[in-house]
Amino acid sequence: MLKRVVTRRLPGFRFEAQAPALDEWLPRMDVAAFVGFAASGPLNLPVAVESVAQFTAIFGEDAGVAWDRKRGVETFAYLAPTVRAFFDNGGRRCWIVRVAREPAAKDAANRARSNLFPVPGLMAGALNTTDADREGVVEKLNPAYVRARSEGSWSDDVEVSASLVSRPAQVINFSLMKLRAELALDSPDDLVAGDLLRLTFKDEYVLLFQATGIAPLSASSPAARRTVQADAAHPVWLRATSPHAPPEQPKLAEVRVYTSEPQTPIVYDSQEPPERTQADHFAARRAAILYPWENEKKSREGREIKLDLAIPVADAPAMGALVRVEGENLWITVEEIGIATNAALPGAQEVVQIKGRGFWWLPVAPGANALEEGGKIAPEGERLSFELWARKGSEYALTLGELAFGASHPRYFGQLPADAEAYDTDRTAPVNEPAEQLWQPVGEVRFPLAGGEDGSVVYFPLGMQFLPERFLPAVKLPGTPLERDGLAEFDADLFLDPDLKEASLNDLLSRADFIRYLSERPRRLRGIHAALALEEVTIVAVPDAVQRGWVKAKVEKAQSARRSAPFPRPEWWHFLDCGRLDNPPLVRRPQLGHFLDCDIEVIERPLLASPGDFSESGTYTLSWASGVAGASFMLEESTDRDWGASATVYTGKETRYTLYGRRPGDYYYRVRATTAKGTSDWSNGVGVRVAPSNAWQLREEVEYTNAELLSVQRALVRLCAARGDLLAVLSLPLHYREDKAIEHISLLKTTQTRAPGSDNSVRLNHDETGAFSYAAVYHPWLTARDARRFDLFRDTPPDGAACGVIARRANARGAWVAPANELIRGAVALAPPITRQRWLDLQLAGLNLIRQEPRGFLALNADTLSDDEDLRLVNVRRLLILLRRLALQHGAAYVFEPNSAAFGRLVQRGFESMLDQMFLRGAFAGKTADAAYQVVTGESLNTRQSVEQGRFVVELRVAPSLPLTFMTIRLVQTGDRGFVTEAR
Predict the structure, then answer these.
(1) Do residues 669 and 637 make contact, with C-beta atoms less than 8 angstroms apart?
(2) Which residues have C-beta within 8 Å of that of residue 974, sequence separation ≥ 6?
(3) At residue 410, does pLDDT exceed 80?
(4) SS3 for 56?
(5) Percent of the chain having pLDDT more than 90?
(6) Distance (Å, whole) CA 836 – CA 851
(7) Is the Cβ–Cβ distance between 330 and 358 less than 8 Å?
(8) How far apart are the two ends of the chain, measured CA to CA in Å?
(9) Given pLDDT bands bounded at 50, 70 and 90, which one contains residue 590?
């Protein structure tokens, strides 16, 4: 008997050469483009994303659009869930085009707008650019604003703050005539052009200027500090004390408050939006009473100024804001806010009382005598920078540090780009590398703010704090959130380029090239036509085209809360008869002129700010202001405007409180302050209605017309066919059942030579019917878990899942394999339900039906809308697209080669080699390569005349592989055994 010998190896390790992975030589066929509505991100600018997290960082969470009255839920845009479904089902890369309305008319309410945020303690000085003698001189001051990084209401909850960073700079010498300073620094590199310097003279006068013309001066010894000389550019003189005698008694004044835009916006001839051309556009003039300074010291230092402002509480400036007193060149940083009564102001009973620090701007520099101290000018110097903070509720709090005020500085905050600038790959402006590194996203969150004005403005701090204690919201803009998103009117124009929406298949590309390159003012294409510039894209979908549309419904806000009665205070009425103390008068102030307890202290009631008239989610934050030091606060909630059945919801020392998950209805709030000496009266009451804030309601199903959807889908089919290498993935509205789906496909394919349909969009004509092989329709919708709340489910169009399946199949097996019989990930149900008896009718109409099978949810057919049986299958059209892209990719290598018979054989061998590899991978039908494909380059195509003209023609004849669509299984009983035979 033979015994097998087992070979053993010694313990240890060995090196094995690993061949590198072969590069995929076929063009990519898995990249998709999605066009729709997003919360944020650049408008009509394609942006490539490769993960859901990257999409969310740029385009935000799901964007709400309208309220569905029938279902009692909010309707969201479909772009975000479509992108999630694409990546969940195998997609790796896609391009996003966010669309919204951008009309040229500046006074249109329905246009996408960016929020603007005043920065606490930051001023903008407008420079003179018209008078040559005063060029570069600061002419007027306004509060400085930063923009949201992109248009839309997504930034309504963002708040902005700033903190000043000061570093000492020793002033060796200062020339008032030349405005030049000599500074002692640890290193000459400590001061660069664009740095902001602040010089303080006698604790009273302040000079701010940008350093320019910096020149190092020689040091007296190697150990001595380095000295530099710097000239002052754009000087701004301020005074911390009043240049005038304080008023002896309260006087009427006019104050500018910067909190909202006028309801009737100004129309500008400039192409730039008003927020970028008019710094004082948000100034509202209000009557006010300016009080005398409270004491001599504060009067001399100008640190506490008090005024009563005739303004609604909802429009009152927040703490940290800047207001201006007209005629005084006086700016006040708001530090305390309260409510008072003042009958001296016309038409005002209850006024907003403001206390703050005052600064006087000096348009003309003071004389040398005013600046001298001890016979010489010896100011204290500082080099200033700042940190910019942004927070959004409890979601995030981000900061950018070491920012500069000057435009010539490499870390100038004004270079913070908006999304339209950050993701514009066609920009030709020089790149500032330090600035590019500064604005990188923090983790997966992009900084929500963008820079401010252009070079005709200089920035400097005015009362900016050293800690970011005060955050300011955006200025109030007219219009509902949906109007400021540019989505108030739903129609096909949102998705189409205005100059291409009526273009035919034959002239679409030429007209697009003219717009982009040859017109008087070349521009980027918009909407779905932006996909023409995306060469790597082979799949296109417009998920939001199936929206039903919405109308503006009148939703009333909650009624105003009743004014709370004062508390009974018997200690104020000891001078009355004893019998009347049981029921003392209810007043807000004790009556002076009587014997009162010396310990009596009137505690001012807080000022409660309104969180808004409406709340969609039932979660909102209440905030209040109080000038009472060390006070505790009690916040009450009631569903009755008369404060019946009030309940305490918060007690503590914080001045903010967030309420969560309130059900639909009206809620009223008031707050009071308590100290060891007593309590204040109740604050003003505010009401909040938990309901759709934008008052836009989804159209009912019976009101729906498919005219807009047909216009978008017909334009998309034309676009795909005109470029020749795109597949349009189409979907239908959610409420479409079998008959409506078949009717819609019939209307979509209606040509001008057939019976007219029910819409007025530009139909494809008879010569364009071949374009329908570039489109595939999927239905019904998929029900999946809500990405934000896993206890909820939402219905989404099948576009994203279908595109993901197509991309997954192309990556795993090839674009020539039919993208069917692949499980759809993430779906838990289908909507609406489709009866099994109608499956064949839908398939015959060209619809790719998503079915629920025992294995899961999948589509068992992959058809285009083509009536040509040879081009009906999606995999056939995709194979031809692949061959087209392959020819463009590899055929370019043969240009400028000698056009000879040898060249023809070279080209033939090259294409045969590529097609042979595809044949081995199953791309073509036929048992042999000769039966699967042919490459023709002979004289029948390339005649002598063609060669003399420099032309060379290659004809690729292929037999696409066809999928197995039906399998017959026969069970035959023979004797005591059974066997299975298969037949097609």
Answers:
(1) yes
(2) none
(3) yes
(4) helix
(5) 34
(6) 9
(7) yes
(8) 52
(9) low
The CA distance from 275 to 278, in Å, is 6
* SS3 category, 874: helix
Instruction: Return the beta strands (E) in 218-349 as ranges.
Output: 226-239, 251-258, 283-290, 305-309, 322-325, 330-341
CA pair distance 722, 512, nearest whole angstrom: 11
Give dist(CA 45, CA 58) in Å, integer.
Answer: 12
- The tokens describing 195, both together, are 């740095």
The contacts of residue 50 (CB under 8 Å, 6+ apart) are 92, 93
CA distance 859 to 823: 8
Three-class DSSP category at 609: strand
Is 417 in a helix, a strand, or coil? coil
Residue 296 gets which letter from DSSP?
Answer: H
863: β partners: 873
DSSP 8-state code for residue 900: S
Dist CA 329 CA 302 (whole Å): 13
Alpha-carbon distance 16 to 6, whole Å? Answer: 23
Q: Contact at 8 Å (CB) between 309 and 353?
A: yes
What residues pair up with 595 in beta bridges, in sequence order? none
Alpha helices in 214-362 (DSSP H): 274-277, 296-301
Q: Which of 81-90, 301-310, 400-409 has the highest mean pLDDT?
A: 81-90
Q: How far is CA 875 from CA 593, 804, 963, in A?
A: 96, 15, 9
Q: What is the pTM of this model?
A: 0.83
CA atoms within 13 A on the CB side of 34: 35
Asked if 963 and 873 count as a contact pair (C-beta separation under 8 A), the reply is yes
Q: In this structure, what token pair is assigned to residue 691? A: 């309901």
Tell me whether residue 445 is exposed, middle or buried, using C-beta atoms within 10 angstroms of its C-beta: 0 to 12, 13 to 18, 19 or more.
Answer: middle
Contact yes or no for 904/947 (Cβ under 8 A)? no
Contact 667, 674 (CB under 8 A): no
- Nearest alpha carbon to residue 550 among 152, 41, 77: 77
The tokens describing 938, both together, are 């002979």
Range in 44-58, 166-180, 247-261, 264-278 the model is least confident about: 264-278
For the chain, give the mean pLDDT.
Answer: 82
And the tokens for 14? 């060995």
Amino acid type, 335: E
Give all strands (DSSP E) within 759-902, no chain letters: 775-779, 781-785, 793-796, 829-831, 847-853, 856-859
72 Cβ neighbours under 8 A, 6+ residues apart: none
